[in-house]
Amino acid sequence: MQIINDQECKNFLQDLNLKTFDDILKFKNDFCYKRNRYRAVYKMVCDGRRNIFLKIYDGISLTMLLNLIFVLKRSEARKEFDNMHLLKTLGISTLTPLGYGEKKIFGLPVKSFLLTESLEKLPRLEDVAAKLWSKISFKVKYKIINNLVNIVFTLHSNNLFHKDLYLGHILYEERKDVQDPLLYLIDLQRIKKHNIRLKRWRIKDLSSLNYSADLCGIENKCRLRFLKSYCAKMEVSYKDYIVPIYKKTERIKKHTMKHFLKKNIRKKQRKI
Question: How far is residue 131's CA from residue 148's CA, in Å, rounded to a whole number?
């Protein structure tokens, strides 16, 4: 099954002779942005002027399989497609979904693809912060922090949680006419709604954001300003959140370092 809402994109795929799900799943070109055991991301240029991203999920992990069986019987592509539409209805800027397709095996959509508009020219907020944060004016910093607060507040006030909320999953658009940069939230396949243990999920998102902000060199006073503003909007106690968030941030640091060391040890062992 495949659904492609954008007619220009549909015609473009037809011209490339990508008419069936299997045709699209076999697609390859020289513009591969990412390739791992479970997915590949390609850039496609439509009519020399419009860039489209094709994300192909051609593998599946045990966790993904268990989610398909017991939680949501939706493919990874379908989840991200639906989440893009959901965020747009909430007023959060993200990629524009153009279409998706999925193939069922034994009734489960284990293979899928997603088509989106490309925003590749926009830098990730983590790169902007790492390179330019010390040079950005206080006024622009305040606007970035305020925009981040609004994004996270909108998610959490609707009991939605990103679960992978790092500055690397936020794109930054500098607008010349105004000093208010536009932020786009991406990598949405893990977004999920929870109605219980809300504080736990809020802390998880906020700790990930705090960790990546610290890693990029965003000073503590700016991170505290973000947290105070978020708590005020959510009408929750700042004192109840600051200690758990900073403790969780430290655990993320230790886990990340441990994972990094293990990965490098495996690389060295393969070379021997």
Answer: 19
